Amino acid sequence: MRERNPIETNAAVGHHGEPNLRRPLTLIRTEPVASGIQNQTAAAGASRRQAMNAGAARIAGVTYPPIVQVSEADRRRVIATIVAAFVNDPVERWLFPELADYEARFGEFVAAFAGEAFERDGVWRLGDFDAVALWLAPGARVDETAITEVLTDAVASEQHEDMFSVLEQMDRAHPTFEHWYLPWLGVVAGAQGKGLGGQLLEHGLARVDQSHLPAFLETPNPRTIAFYERQGFVVTAESQSGDCPPVTSMLREAR
Fold it and tell me: Residue 137 is part of which domain span?
């Protein structure tokens, strides 16, 4: 995605009437997606990782704050950043149209979809939690029970048919081969437009490339597609039903 308000990805999956949040549970070891660029820019990748590990990077003369791994102790601050970053997101606000409901319940959804990201060392921040990224490594799981409960309880019943239809489409589009998954990437409003989301994404992809596996995400805002395409992602599917805004699935091949 390009830097937008907010920079993000999010996802949930399920079946009409009874969500089936099975994607992180069905990561089957198969041949990775074929890639014609596995040997591309190896030296550049190593230099990028070195810059990340040094805690800062310079792009176009701008010095960024260090990228810091986040522990379980700061879970609430990470969730607060995502909630703040997504407050104007079309899909999230379709699910939670009232601001009070969004502020009260969306954090539960974020926490459930963070799953084992904290336990698997997959959470990173820039600055004073100005931007955060949560990655699920191959085999890591979301809290499917909590996701089902939040969506069923917090989203208006008249929206369930469209919501579960979209989630079922997303389920079908989600890879079954081994991959990294990026459920959340967010930048608070006051820090947007400064390249923080791009820095966090590049940092995460450097780790992904060390495993030579694909990366997958979904974005609910078409404006973010070009941003992800610049990092090597391609559109693989679009999920949409009724009044629910579309959600775009994107895959980056193994490198």
Answer: 23-252
Separation CA 88–CA 105 (nearest Å) = 15
d(CA 255, CA 226) in angstroms, rounded, equals 20
Give 19-71 pLDDT, tens digit per residue.
Answer: 334 343 332 222 333 333 333 444 444 444 444 444 444 444 567 788 999 99
* Gap between the Cα atoms of 188 and 6, Å rounded: 7
Please state whether the predicted TM-score (pTM) of the whole model is above 0.85.
no
CB atoms within 10 A of CB 243: 10
Could you tell me the two tokens for 253?
A: 């091949």
Domain containing residue 168: CATH number:
3.40.630.30
- Helices then strands, counting H and E runs in the chain, come out as 8, 9
Return the H-helix or E-strand segment holding 69: strand 67-69
The first and second tokens of residue 242, run together, are 């009724």
**Cβ 252 vs Cβ 205: under 8 Å:** yes
- Other beta carbons within 10 angstroms of residue 183's beta carbon come to 26
- Number of structural domains (the chain) is 1
Domain assignment of residue 31, yes or no: yes
